[in-house]
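Weekly structure sync, notes
Attendees: PL (lead), two postdocs, one rotation student
Agenda item 3: pending single-chain targets
PL asked that the sequence for the first pending target be pasted directly into the notes so everyone works from the same version. It is reproduced below exactly as submitted, 501 residues in total.
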Amino acid sequence: MNKKIIIITVISIIVLGLVIYWFFIKENGIEFILEKVAIGTVIKEISETGTIKISAETELGFKNAGRIEKIYVEVGDIVEAGQELAKFDTTQLYIELDEAKANLEIAKAKKTDTGVSLKSAEQNLKDAKVEAKENLENAYEDALNVLDDSYLKVYNVYNIVYKIQQDYFTFSDGKSAEVVEERYRINGSLGRTEDYVNDAKNNPQEENIDLVLSKVKEQLEAVSNSLEIVRDAVRSEVYRNSVSAADKTSLDTQRTNIINVIADIVNTQQAISVIKIANEISINNAEAEISSIENKLQEGGLYQAQINQAQAKVKLLENKITEAVLKSPSDGQIIKVNKREGEMAQPTDSVVSFLPTAPFQVEADIYEEDIVDVKVSNQVKITIPAFPDEILEGRVVSIDPAEKVIGGVVYYEVTISFEEEKEGIKSGMTADIIIESDKKENVLVIPRGTAEKINGKNIVQVFKDGKVEEREIEIGLEGDDFVEVISGLEEGEEVVVGEKL
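Predicted structure, written out during the meeting:
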């Protein structure tokens, strides 16, 4: 080996060693992947698919009730996005805000209330724990019932598919082979579903039932996919006239049953999650009350609960004052003015009717868990498959308060206006949308998934002085890629984001 090759080899080894040292830190035989805590931007986005419609008149109103002090526009006015259209009388709100701020100062300075009963607070905690246990037990009993129903639905599907296969698909053609194969797959899902359900009954621990719900949902989705293939075979050119209408209807009924039971599982998982959160809040509040009373009795401290309540009141009123101004969600024209200055307006009332400038809009159904994060005027990125290389800008102009139930799942219709015109767009086209529901810039961030929820606390692993230590942090906005860190970490610190396989 010549000298030049030896030198290159040595340099390569050194560089490789530095790379490994920089990206992977080995401790107790485990190689960790590290990421530095940095200042960045957290964006929370909601993705969905909608349909392009011809722009329609949109009714605009206030979020809260109040008396209209000023209407700034008239019929026919051309308005720009963000332009003020109308305003509530905020005199009373400012009076209430001054009072709330005064109460906040009083709460901050208030001395210990000796009349608070610690014994009553402790009883409240016991009651909260008993109620929490009962609520969760009832939820998991419902979950077991849903699991039983899931097995029954898969069992019925298998019987129908087996009958159809035996009656019609007994030849050696491709469609028969497909149906036979999907029958075996459904049978496999039936067996696995039965095993999972029995496991949940034999080991009815909360964590196990949670796991079984997810596993059974996967099997139901697999059965749904198999049903689709069988349905396609039944409707194929060769067999469409052979299979009886009753069998076709029965097949469709089974597919609907599977879709519904999948929705039942999703609803059950959500219900359990909501109950756990509610239980945690209830117990935490009761424990916080005890802790607060003990602190006051022992240290003569302030009423933190009253302070928090006063702060929340101040924030609520400040938000109401901000929302007392009705603004245009996008460029457009005022078609009607439905209210007059001095009139009262409710949240359901239309103050002005507005027609966006853009000739087309996008209508999309947003899942109920996501709709709470969507607000009028949210920025939207729109991609149309017919123009795959272009991303168009849009903005949320309205959110229908009435729900839609699709396959047992609740959705809400959102209307999005284009901020720019695009030639070639047609009504009925599909549009993929990404709604920017929230955004925070210049905040401390870590990659999403870095923090782990342990006993209600957000825990991260921090690499410091050659060792990994666990640390509790407080998080804020959770985005799609990053999470905001409010406290517990400093810029430049290194956190463990994974292990090298």
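Discussion points:
- The two ends are 34 Å apart (CA to CA).
- Confidence is low (pLDDT under 50) at residues 1-10, 12-25.
Action: rotation student to compare against the earlier draft before next sync.
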